[in-house]
Design a protein that fits this description.
CATH architecture of the largest domain: 3-Layer(bba) Sandwich
Strand content: 15-25%
Shape: globular
CATH topology of the largest domain: FAD/NAD(P)-binding domain
Helix content: 25-40%
Number of helices: 17
Oligomer: single chain
Structural class: alpha+beta
Largest sheet: 9 strands, mixed
Length: 627
């Protein structure tokens, strides 16, 4: 009391049926998971991930100790005792303590008593067995994004019954807490509705930062580069389906169920083909599900000039495909009768130097020669079009046909429409061997982790893993993986309406329908062996945010909510399409600009299979150019 008066004690009586103490508490294991420490499923309450530790807090990673609520729940006394043991062990490893491991009775005794007391509390106050069946549909499951139980149940019943698919279809877990509170509940709901047992790998991958951080605090200028480091492309299949199936006979087998495989399923089934699309994991993961959703029509800055592969020739040959594919996306949206959030508001590639402006003028001239609508504007016109961009920018190249799409909706919509047209979509179906039957055009026998598929023709649409599939038939496909990162901020008022890129630096920047700013542009990520996924690197996060804040100053005050990485496809700047010489019936459908070009690529390969020709000359995209 500021006046120094005593405050009378008060009591409030609340009538309740049940009092829950610590009901639903879960440990904060995000940091340990980011490091790649082994985890297990703790069965208490709804079930949650707990870090696997020894008595002294040692984890599966040498030199990493985790104690307290960062590993599992046990109360303050358990945390205190384990912290003492962890500190002793760490000091010993640093040569600051006794040479022999010490477990003094004054620590172990209290630890044992505290563990017993905690177990007694959990036994005395154990809640009844949890079932989510009685929770009303209008109850919020994800508070950050306001996702209800009903909307999640609807998606599970529609077949989107993994946490990864639920996240992409509902935005569950995409808010500020990054699924800290909803993941365990969603995982339990999936298990109850599907009967599938929970698994450690079903949970959302941890992404930096652990807590939202202002973008301006993380941005530091980094040197530019050309090309990507060699990437590890291991088999990342997750246990999404196991049930074996009877032998399948199909006209066309598409390997890979990302956006390109889904478009192939869509166009092939529309043309009357019996088509089966398989994926070793769930659909729309890796490159497609981790995509930022840019619809590129003009060349990226590193596809023209000194930075371009093969002098930029293959990338330039691809230019006519962009506008055709964007129009196909618009047609697909109408056919699916679903809002894919396609916004063709134009692209701006900005420059902050005279050299950059000259670069844009030369690039725009080349693009116009290939039929692309492109013009260079000065700083005054740029600020009229996009006032929030930096006043230090000298101008930009404006490409009206560019825009964005929501990749969290589009792939699923195309795949759903393909199924409605008769296509089979088989997930958890890891292709292990491919054998060509004797005789030209006799077809193939494909053995997968779930069964055998007999296919008249095969389309290799496996992205960065295309060479792995090719090797099964003795074909070398010059494709490499390129893990790239994306960053998203908290929702903001309208700031940019265009797809923004930079003439001299790696950048793509746009604002999603949710209000979040999506920042990317080709900054390198890396495969993390302990976590078995691609993850962003600190250097790339800092450099990417510096460029973005340099172009859009308002970004500095927005919080970065998460950063993730997907596996992009690295070729020579152009797709690889068509039948492979010497291997009749085996086709490639591989492109590094996958989301933009998926419809036109699927359409062209479908025409080849159904009609034996295309109306557009695909000679620059044949694998013959590498032979």
């Amino acid at each position: 009391d500021a006046q120094g008066h005593a405050v009378a004690a008060t009591a409030r009586r609340i009538e309740v049926d049940t009092l829950c103490l610590g009901y639903g508490f879960i440990p904060s294991t995000e940091l340990a998971r980011m490091l790649g420490c082994a985890h297990r499923l703790a069965p208490r309450h709804l079930g949650h991930l707990a870090t696997v530790t020894q008595e002294d807090g040692a984890t599966s990673l040498p030199g990493v100790f985790v104690v307290g609520d960062g590993a599992d729940l046990g109360g303050s006394r358990v945390a205190l005792a384990r912290g003492t043991l962890a500190g002793t062990a760490a000091a010993r490893k640093l040569g600051l303590g006794a040479a022999e491991p010490a477990k003094p009775a004054e620590v172990l005794g209290p630890l044992r008593r505290a563990e017993c007391f905690q177990q007694a509390l959990w036994s005395l106050y154990a809640p009844p067995p949890v079932t989510l069946a009685a929770v009303p549909d209008d109850t919020l499951l994800c508070r950050c994004e306001e996702i209800t139980f009903g909307s999640v149940r609807e998606q599970i019943r529609a077949g989107n019954d993994t946490l990864a698919a639920l996240k992409r279809n509902t935005r569950l877990g995409m808010g500020r807490c990054q699924a800290r509170y909803c993941a365990a509940t969603a995982g339990r709901l999936v298990a109850e509705l599907t009967g599938s047992p929970p698994d450690v790998e079903q949970y959302f991958a941890p992404r930096p930062p652990a807590k939202p951080v202002a973008a301006g605090a993380l941005g530091f200028e980094k040197p530019e580069w050309s090309g990507h480091r060699p990437a590890i492309t291991p088999n990342l299949a997750r246990p999404v389906a196991h049930a074996p199936f009877a032998p399948v006979h199909t006209d066309v087998l598409v390997i890979g169920a990302g956006v390109l495989g889904s478009c192939l399923g869509y166009y092939l089934s529309k043309a009357g083909q019996d088509v089966t699309v398989v994926d070793r994991d769930d659909i729309n993961l890796q490159a497609s599900g981790a995509n930022a959703g840019s619809l590129h029509v003009q060349l990226l800055s590193f596809d023209f000039g000194a930075k371009a592969q093969d002098d930029g020739g293959p990338a330039a040959a691809t230019l006519p495909l962009g506008p055709m594919s964007v129009r196909l996306w618009q047609e697909i949206e109408g056919d699916c009768a679903e809002d894919l959030e396609i916004k063709i508001t134009g692209g701006l590639m900005v420059a902050d130097s005279e050299a950059g402006m000259r670069f844009l003028e030369a690039k725009a001239a080349l693009e116009r020669s290939h039929g692309i609508d492109a013009q260079v504007i000065d700083g005054t016109e740029l600020r009229r079009l996009s006032p929030a961009l930096s006043g230090k920018l000298l101008g930009a190249e404006l490409c009206p046909m560019e825009g964005k799409i929501n990749p969290l909706r589009a792939t699923y919509a195309v795949a759903r429409r393909a199924r409605e047209q008769g296509a089979r979509m088989l997930r958890g179906c890891d292709v292990q061997t491919i054998g060509a039957l004797p005789g030209d055009g006799a077809g193939f026998v494909v053995r997968t982790s779930r069964g055998t598929i007999h296919a008249g023709r095969i389309v290799n649409a496996s992205g960065a893993w295309s060479n792995t599939i090719g090797r099964m038939l003795g074909v070398t496909i010059p494709v490499k993986g390129a893990p790239l990162q994306m960053i998203v901020t908290e929702p903001a008022p309208p700031l940019v309406n265009h797809l923004v890129a930079h003439a001299d630096r790696h950048l793509s920047l746009k604002q999603a329908a949710s209000g979040g700013l999506i920042v990317g542009g080709g900054w390198t990520a890396a495969f993390h062996e302990d976590m078995r996924l691609n993850r962003a690197e600190r250097e790339s996060i800092e450099g990417n945010l510096w460029v973005a804040c340099h172009v859009l100053p308002a970004l500095r005050g927005l919080h970065m909510v998460r950063c993730w990485a997907g596996m992009n496809v690295n070729i020579d700047g152009a797709p690889i399409l068509g039948e492979v010489p010497g291997h009749p019936g085996f086709y490639n459908a591989v492109t590094s600009n996958g989301y933009t070009l998926a419809p036109i690529t699927g359409r062209l390969v479908t025409d080849l299979i159904v009609h034996g020709r295309t109306d557009f000359d695909i000679t620059p995209f044949l694998i013959d150019r590498f032979l």
